[in-house]
């Protein structure tokens, strides 16, 4: 079944901001920086608010269409217990209940996949579906995530 929306279940608040330097894809975890801008969450296993880039449905865009640099990005700030579809890194394999953390590039990885020596400061959510992206040729894919 194709995922058509980033928000899946529960409550969330809408916001928007402008991205710096790198295009943002719906489903990426972003962080606020100075000047009211956002960028892809930049610290593997790092702390931060759960802010996810949403699809720009008001412009007729889908979850697979990235935002250009320097344009307003629709953001979702979900509450605990909500479910959002976030990008899981190619090469990952998760089952329901696995803890998910930032990979430092705006996507999520299983906590067990964190690089050696990295201390996890925040678990963003738990996998709400089984998803195996370990096969050769797999790509970053949206995964249902229960917000913690």
Beta-strand content bin? 35-45%
The span between the termini is 25 Å
Estimated structural class: mainly beta
List low-confidence stretches: none
Number of domains: 1
What is the annotated CATH architecture? Answer: Beta Barrel
Largest sheet: 6 strands, antiparallel
Q: Look at the structure and give the mean pLDDT.
A: 95
Helix content: under 10%
Q: Please report the total strand number as a whole number.
A: 13
User: What is the CATH topology descriptor?
Assistant: Virus Head Decoration Protein, Chain: A
Shape call: globular
What does this entry look like structurally?
The protein is mostly beta strands and 148 residues long. The protein has one domain (7-147): Virus Head Decoration Protein, Chain: A (Beta Barrel). The chain is built from no helices and 13 strands. A 6-stranded antiparallel β-sheet has the order 1-7-13-11-9-10, with no helix packed on it. The chain has a 5-stranded mixed β-sheet with strand order 3-4-2-6-5, with no helix packed on it. Strands 8-12 form a two-stranded antiparallel ribbon. 36% of the residues are buried.
Observed structural traits:
single chain, five-stranded mixed sheet, globular, mainly beta, Virus Head Decoration Protein, Chain: A
Topology, element by element:
Elements: E1 7-9, E2 12-19, E3 30-33, E4 37-40, E5 52-53, E6 72-78, E7 83-88, E8 93-94, E9 99-102, E10 108-110, E11 125-127, E12 131-132, E13 141-147
Parallel strand pairs: 2-4
Antiparallel strand pairs: 1-7, 2-6, 3-4, 5-6, 7-13, 8-12, 9-10, 9-11, 11-13
